[in-house]
Specification:
The structure is a single chain. The protein is mostly beta strands and 277 residues long. It folds into two domains: 14-172, Immunoglobulin-like (Sandwich); 174-274, Sandwich (Immunoglobulin-like). It has strands spanning 14-20, 37-42, 51-57, 63-65, 71-80, 85-94, 103-105, 113-116, 121-130, 146-154, 159-166, 171-173, 175-182, 191-202, 207-210, 215-222, 229-235, 241-247, 252-258, 267-268, 272-274. Strand 10 (146-154) and strand 11 form a beta hairpin. The radius of gyration is 24 Å and the shape is elongated. The chain starts with 13 loop residues before the first strand and ends with a strand.
Length: 277
């Protein structure tokens, strides 16, 4: 997979030059991950009283991507200057710093759309699209390792920039979960076998694969009841499969529930109704 990016900022402060990511093959793995060579030239950076007071990714909500659908989200930069804010911009990168980044997400338009908060402060938003087929080239990009470079201009020449703002959102691999209880129908007191599978997006193969050795709850709701009860917690096997047994007691619904991890969101399966006779 190839990641290539060349950025030229149109705002007065943010100027990114020689930003390029060399070709790399995802199959090579993290040890040969592409590097981002970035030179940040911010004319008048940190000059005057301009300050970036807050940055936010996707409103603080995690960005979840599957294997094919593009994910759209916003970066918001709040800045202040005694004379007011003329504009702001930002982009996301993954890694310890820009020079050693192995992933980068750049807004379609580096000129943020700014909304005035008051005479000194504005919040500027930028639209970003993450394509799991091109941008999220490695599973190692999942989690909380993303940072922001952000810059802002004051209306009278002041400016500010920073390259290690921490993202308040994680990037996660979309998960799927299934449940099947059998036999159906079943006699009261007999054994039910409840199977299922927990899978998640593999960004390197563009396919779904089993999420192994993960704790998953089996829940039951009696017909007519308003809430589920957890019957037991089991772990997915080496292929992400789930299997356990319970005694049939009454008509009701069975489902599996996964709480999620830092790299994978929570997911609840569709419930399977069992007729107990």
């Amino acid at each position: 997979m190839r990641i290539r990016a060349t950025v030229a900022a149109l705002s007065g402060t943010l100027a990114l030059s020689a930003l390029a990511v060399p070709a790399a093959n995802a199959a090579d793995g993290p040890s040969s991950a592409p590097r981002v060579a970035a030179k940040v030239a911010a004319k008048g950076a940190n000059a005057g009283s301009t300050k970036i007071t807050k940055v936010s990714v996707n409103g603080g909500k995690d960005v979840v991507a599957g294997t094919s659908n593009k994910v759209k989200f916003k970066i918001a930069v709040t800045a202040t200057d005694p004379a007011g804010i003329a504009g702001a911009s930002a982009f996301l990168y993954h890694g310890s710093d820009i020079d050693h980044a192995d992933g980068i997400l750049i807004p379609d338009d580096l000129n943020g759309k700014c909304k005035v908060v008051n005479s000194t402060t504005s919040t500027c938003t930028l639209d970003v699209v993450a394509d799991p087929k091109t941008d999220l080239w490695s599973n190692d990009l999942a989690g909380s390792g993303w940072k922001l470079y952000a810059a802002a201009d004051g209306k009278r020449g002041g400016s500010a920039e920073g390259e290690k703002f921490k993202s308040d959102a994680r990037f996660q691999r979309y998960a799927k979960l299934t449940t099947n209880a059998s036999p159906e129908p079943v006699k009261k007191g007999k054994t039910l076998t409840v199977t299922g599978a927990l899978t998640r997006a593999n960004w390197e193969t563009s396919k779904y694969a089993g999420y192994t050795t993960q704790s998953v709850k089996l829940q039951y709701k009696k017909k007519g009841a308003s809430s589920y009860t957890t019957l037991k917690t089991i772990k997915s096997d080496t292929k992400g499969n789930l299997k356990t047994t319970v005694k049939a007691s009454a008509d009701g619904y069975f489902r599996y529930v996964f709480a999620g991890t830092s790299t994978t969101p929570s997911v609840t399966s569709t419930a399977d109704f069992v007729d107990v006779r």
